[in-house]
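Cross-posted from the bioinformatics board.
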Amino acid sequence: MKHILLIDDNEIDNFINKKIVSKSLMADLITVLNSGIDAIEFLTNLIMNNEPFPELIFLDIQMPEMDGFQFLHQFDNFPEEMKVSTSINMLTSSSNSNDIKRASECRYVKNFFNKPLSAGELDIFKTN
Amino acid sequence: MENNANEILECESQLHNSFDNMLEGVQIVDSNWRYKYVNDALTKQSKLTKEELLGYTMLEKYPGIESTEMFKALQQCMTKRVSNYIETEFKFHDNSTSWFNVSIKPIPEGLLILTIEVTNQKNAEAQFQESEIFSSAILSSLNSHIAVIGSNGGVLMVNKAWDDFAKENGEARNNRVSIGSNYFDVCKKSILRGDLYAEAAMEGIKSVFNKENVNFELEYPCHSPDEKRWFILKVTPFEGEAQKVVIAHLDVTQHKMAEMSNKANETKYRRLFESAKDGILILNADTGKIEDVNPFLVHILGFPFNYFIGKELWEIGLFKDKEASKTAFLELQENKYIRYDDLPLKTKEGKHLNVEFVSNVYLVNEQKVIQCNIRDITERVAAEESIRKSERRLIEAQEISHTGNWEMDLITNVSVWSDGFYNILGLKRQSIPPSIEAFLDLIYFEDRANVKKGIQETLNTLTTSTINFRFIHNDGSLKFVYSECQFEFDNKNIPVRLYGIVQDITEQRKVEERLELQNNELKKINSELDKFVYSTSHDLRAPLTSVLGLIDIIDENILPTDIEQKELIGMMKQSISKLDNFIVDIISYSRNSRMEIEKDIINFEELINESRQTLEYMEGDSQCKINVDVIQIGKFISDRTRLLTNLNNLISNAIKYQDKSKPNSYINITVHSNDWNAIITIEDNGIGIADDKQERVFEMFYRATKLSKGSGLGMYIVKETLDKLNGTITVKSKLNIGTTFTVTLPNLI
């Protein structure tokens, strides 16, 4: 089963991302959350319920309260065995190279996408 | 009888006639002492006339005569009838006395008395005797040893001093020169012993006897066993008698000693004069002209000795003219002393000397002499001048740099503060004397402990310590000072002196504080601007990307047959992309101008790939064949973000302006990098740029072709970024043929 988690505070972007992801990646389950805090809570619940983490997480960087980096920091605290099969993909509309640098320091971050997410960009996941 | 009587009378008369003319006084008295005959000479002697005497008795005429010597002799002759002779002094009535030689002869009538007055002879004799006694007394009383010798050398007379001296000297009796001995023999004995003085003395005495010399003098030493003595032998011919000479030995020891000490002094003085390291001039006190000059002055001035003699001081350049020389001379006459600390003097070679000049007047043998001492102080003056100069420079330097120096003698507790030090504190030198206590008092109380700690540290580490602290200025304000201090140690490693400098850095501090404030403000502004740009890039672009995403979704849902809808959607995408690109450009520009250069390790292959990925979905990308050829030798350092922006711009331009009419659009990207630089070329066969526009493509907001959909910022940003990285960019292009951009980038390794 393929579980994909979308985290973005922008409802429209969430809508777009969900559309694109659901169309191009044959996901079994797409969870959409609009804050980092919700996402951490969601992942914590997964651990408590002994359920696996999503295989893919699309994470927006610029979010209120807890931004993408803070989320990554929190994510780092989760048990290793939970995270091992998860890859995080950053979404940004700033194309700020510092952001890219910072995000790359987290070893679960695998890709970097400029918004809007396009169907073509997601082709890299299809090969798997 | 009568004849007889007449004969007698005649005879008597003849006798009287012969008596009359005699020089001796003649008188005949009878047995009753009655004058029977007196001649003229007698009347002169008796001071009575013939009439007053003849017929009268001697007792009548000279009452009291019976008690005189003369009368006794007369009586004796009268009674005994024998001739008598007497030399006697006779006293007259007027109390005058006369000496007479009296011859008395008894004659039948009575007595014949012949008298010769000898008063004069007698007086002369007495005088002679007196003078004899006098001379001998003088001779005896003289200290000089005097002897009279005859021409054969026989000693005729010696005085007491001579005799005493001979005795004192312990001369053997047979060797002693005294009356009866021979002076020449004594001399000869001495000559045989090798006494050269004796030889000279003998020659001299003989020369006087021979009248070769009027007199003769010889000075000779005659040392006794326990004292040094000198004598002068004086030989003078005896007055009137050529065959006698007077020999006098005068003791001149004291004279000689004085003379010798004079001579010694003079020798000493002369030696001083000759060897002195001061120039010395001796002037005539009356004329002021130079009489002597010592060798040292001759040496330093280079003129010959004779040059100086007879000249006045101004003539050798000591005073500027005769008038000045005269003034000095008068002052010298008056005060007996003048001194000039610095007079000019010129050597023969024309070199200027500074001399110290001291002159004084003193007496030598009752003779006024002026001595001038001249010391060459040229070097001292030069040294003093250079010290003054450097002191002045130090003061100026301290004034300009707002520094001061201070020192504390730890042994004597004496402190010294420079003018600069006082200036920093706004204090007058007279208002507060320097001391350790005052120094510490002037330090702002909060900093005092720190300063003491710093000084202690200096003592511990033996290094110069640097302390920043605050002084209390005279006006109450605080002065920030930078200070360095250092100890000086004696050979036993005991600190003897603490010294240091202080620099007023109050102004500097103010500027620094202002700068810091401004810097902080700038940093704040910068960071705010960065945040602003960041959020702008997000907040402006986020809605655009959302719209683009939504359009994509709509586009998916439109059937390919609905061409009109497709076109409209396409135009919407274009417009939004244009706006988005513009925002991206502005952000890049703003970031480039603000951000510091980052030094990243560059892998050109990877960098170009990243750029390609970014541009992968760009319109026209797929119609373009992109060839990459990278030759990277060694490590290359540059600012990765800026480099990527440049590559994106250059490559995207090449894609954008491809010539759609050409079937084989291509872009050749080559990189050649080494330790010094990297040369990147991006060559295309696109539409090309007209010659007249090539130079302008790097201008802000310049768009070379109407085909341009961009902001006109792309190439401007490339140029600006390369300027920042000390790189260059050149363009080669031909309209309708293609364009080649060549970037040269230094390796920031």
